[in-house]
Design goal:
Layout (H helix, E strand, L loop, with lengths): L1 H12 L2 H22 L3 H15 L6 H18 L8 H13 L2 H22 L6 H86 L4 H26 L22 H10 L4 E6 L7 H21 L6 E7 L3 E8 L14 H11 L3 E6 L5 E8 L5
Parallel strand pairs: 1-2
Antiparallel strand pairs: 2-3, 3-5, 4-5
Helix pairs in contact: 2-3, 3-4, 3-5, 4-5, 4-6, 5-6, 5-7, 6-7, 7-8, 7-10, 10-11
Length: 392
């Protein structure tokens, strides 16, 4: 099967070779027979040889090949040479120009065929007293012309249909590759956002604790030990989160066998607030209204925005600042405000352009908004607004 397919593919790439074989077969049979049976033999041989030579290029140059055949037929008609078996080449040429030529050439070929029928009937069918024979001969020639043209036209339509199917298959393959690339880019962006949130939050806690422990080391050794313990716990938690995120890329050797933990969400806010308190920033969590469950995606987005806002407060609000997280579950939307009474530094980015831009990007994915700015009376605030919509 494979060998035959390779042979067909080679023939499609080199159509002149099989056409030359066909033309040679016609030359050795029909042309030589006609040269021996009709006078003058040399004229029939030359005319038949020219027609066979034109058939060699019937697929690569269908219009030119059919033009040579039509010219040869006109020469035969004008010189009075009898119809011969090699005139079959005219029908093959008509089929070829209909199958492999453009639409206008196919129609022109059909018109030339009808003209040939009219000229041939007048010249080679005697208009004697039996008019029925004259008409029947003309109709028979016309039927041959229409049949050859119709078979070529069916081949041309089929080729166009197959080409369209191939193009659709290629287009579907290109679209599949594009979707795969977009999905991979989206997944990379999601992992990048998760890694940024994990690293930024935990490193901020570690930096704050390290600074505090360093200053408290001389006066209060126990405070320094507590700071070191918090640094260790935070570092281990960050490593666990990093392993979880990178687990999609490689197998892990963790003690839990690389088990994937659920993504954090609104239900994880108390743990987040506790970790920020342990890092040295007093935080108050206030929830108004009946909590409404959200889908994992929007719930994770809200959690990450609040985490980012608290991380920035931890870094920029100052040592004596306090923070507050207020969640309001309204009838049609969830709103949240993370505020602090610190120095009010307008620094809500980590220097890499990921902070506020990442918050807005997360909320925009689910139809929400994020705004940030100085709070009334001092400090800084981040406001989140998420309509339930598809997120609920």
């Amino acid at each position: 099967m494979r060998r035959r397919d390779r042979l067909y593919a080679w023939v499609r790439r080199h159509p002149v070779v099989p056409d030359a074989v066909i033309a040679l077969g016609l030359l050795l049979t029909l042309v030589l027979f006609s040269a021996a049976a009709f006078d003058p033999g040399w004229a029939h041989f030359v005319l038949g040889a020219v027609m066979c030579a034109a058939l060699v290029f019937r697929r690569v140059r269908p219009i030119e090949a059919f033009g040579v055949l039509v010219a040869s037929g006109l020469v035969q008609w004008a010189t009075g040479l009898e119809l011969a078996p090699y005139d079959l080449a005219l029908l093959i040429g008509l089929y070829s120009v209909s199958a492999y030529g453009p639409r206008w050439a196919s129609r022109a070929g059909l018109a030339a065929g009808f003209l040939g029928v009219a000229l041939g009937t007048v010249r080679y069918v005697p208009a004697d007293e039996n008019s029925q024979t004259f008409v029947a001969s003309g109709l028979a020639l016309a039927a041959f012309v229409v049949g050859a043209w119709a078979m070529g036209d069916v081949r041309r339509v089929r080729q166009a249909y197959v080409a369209e199917l191939v193009e659709r298959a290629h287009q579907a393959e290109r679209e599949r590759d594009q979707r795969a690339q977009l999905a991979a880019a989206e997944e990379r962006a999601r992992i990048a956002r998760e890694m940024h949130d994990v690293v930024a939050h935990n490193l901020s806690v570690i930096v704050v604790q390290a600074d505090g422990g360093r200053y408290a080391g001389d006066q209060d050794p126990q405070a320094a030990l507590d700071a070191l313990k918090t640094i260790g716990d935070t570092g281990r938690g960050a490593l666990a989160e990093m392993r979880r995120l990178l687990g999609v890329l490689r197998a892990t050797d963790d003690g839990d066998g690389g088990a994937v933990r659920p993504q954090p969400g609104l239900g994880s806010l108390p743990e987040l607030v506790t970790s920020v308190r342990q890092a040295g920033l007093p935080v108050e969590l206030d929830v108004t209204g009946a909590p409404r469950p959200l889908r994992p995606g929007p719930s994770l987005a809200v959690y990450r925005v609040i985490q980012e806002a608290l991380t920035n407060a931890l870094k920029h609000a100052g040592p004596a600042a306090r923070a507050r997280v207020a969640l309001v579950f309204a009838a049609d939307r969830l709103t949240a405000r993370v505020s602090d009474d610190g120095r009010g530094a307008a620094a809500v980015d980590d220097g890499l352009g990921q902070g506020l831009a990442g918050m807005r990007e997360r909320m925009t994915m689910y139809g929400g908004t994020v705004t940030a700015g100085p709070a009334t009376g001092g400090g800084w605030r981040v406001d989140l607004d998420l309509p339930y919509g598809e997120g609920a």
